[in-house]
Amino acid sequence: DTGVSQDPRHKITKRGQNVTFRCDPISEHNRLYWYRQTLGQGPEFLTYFQNEAQLEKSRLLSDRFSAERPKGSFSTLEIQRTEQGDSAMYLCASSWGLAGNYEQYFGPGTRLTVT
Amino acid sequence: SQQGEEDPQALSIQEGENATMNCSYKTSINNLQWYRQNSGRGLVHLILIRSNEREKHSGRLRVTLDTSKKSSSLLITASRAADTASYFCATDPYQTGANNLFFGTGTRLTVIP
User: Fold this and answer.
1) Which of A75, A80, A102 has its CA nearest to residue A91?
2) For residues A15-25, average pLDDT
3) What is the pLDDT of residue A100?
4) Mean pLDDT, rounded, for A104-112
5) A43 touching B (Cβ < 8 Å)
6) I need a surface site. Which of A42, A99, B9, B31 has the fewest CB within 10 A?
7) For residue B104, what is the DSSP state?
8) pLDDT in the model for residue A1
9) A51 touches chain B (CB under 8 A)
10) For residue B33, what is the nearest residue in chain A, using CA coordinates?
């Protein structure tokens, strides 16, 4: 399968712990996006990378969140000192293009539960 | 907010009937996209319509876009039980240039066999 993959699929953690998620995009895609989706809502944009550069961050991305994309390949999203409000599905997507109209391909997501 | 808003929030139809979902948004856009999300699964891209297009077809899907009214509609013809899912419109706002998508809250479609 050459689609977007995410790991782990599920994560349960205690409040205050740190968690890290990984996303492997479609190999030829230069753009990578992170979104968060809570129950009954649509995904909300968090941040995006073009190659290895993080070009935009949402106001939703507090200083407890950090994302990296070393060498423009896979990406990690780390949440430090997790809070119960961080419980959500974290979705990764990738696309190809420098500008213009391109669809995004989404991974299956990582469901985070903070207890 | 740059989110799209879908209407209705939930829709239940019999297999074989057509389903129409509407989306309204607030800002100028590069394009508008429709995605489907099955229970427990990721989002699947259905169709992209650019701001200079008015209608687009893909299989049993028909999407219209009216930029003067800032609205779009998704029509699924001859629905099947497998079409049961949540459908989201997502806008790519003109000013960001980053192709970040802003999603609505979705329409939950149930197709009864």
Assistant:
1) A75
2) 98
3) 63
4) 94
5) yes
6) A99
7) -
8) 53
9) no
10) A103
Per-residue pLDDT of chain B (113 residues; tens, 9 = 90+): 446 788 899 999 999 999 999 999 998 888 999 999 987 678 999 999 999 999 999 999 999 999 999 999 999 999 999 999 999 999 988 765 666 889 999 999 999 99
Q: How is residue B53 written in tokens?
A: 């297009």
Is the sign of the CA dihedral A25, B36, B46, B22 positive or negative? negative
pLDDT confidence of residue A98: 65
Task: In whole angstroms, give the CA distance from residue A54 to residue A61.
Answer: 13
**Percent of chain A whose predicted confidence (pLDDT) is above 70:** 96
C-beta of residue B36 within 8 angstroms of C-beta of residue A43: no
Question: Can you tell me the distance from the alpha carbon of B16 to that of B5, in angstroms, rounded to the nearest whole number?
Answer: 26
Token representation of residue A74? 């896979």
C-alpha to C-alpha distance for B45 and B54, rounded to whole angstroms:
19
Greatest Cα-to-Cα distance within chain A, rounded to the nearest angstrom: 41
The nearest alpha carbon in chain B to A91 belongs to B42
* Residue of B46, B100, B105 best to disrupt the A interface, most CBs of A under 10 A: B100
Q: Which residues of B touch A93 (CB under 8 A)?
A: 43
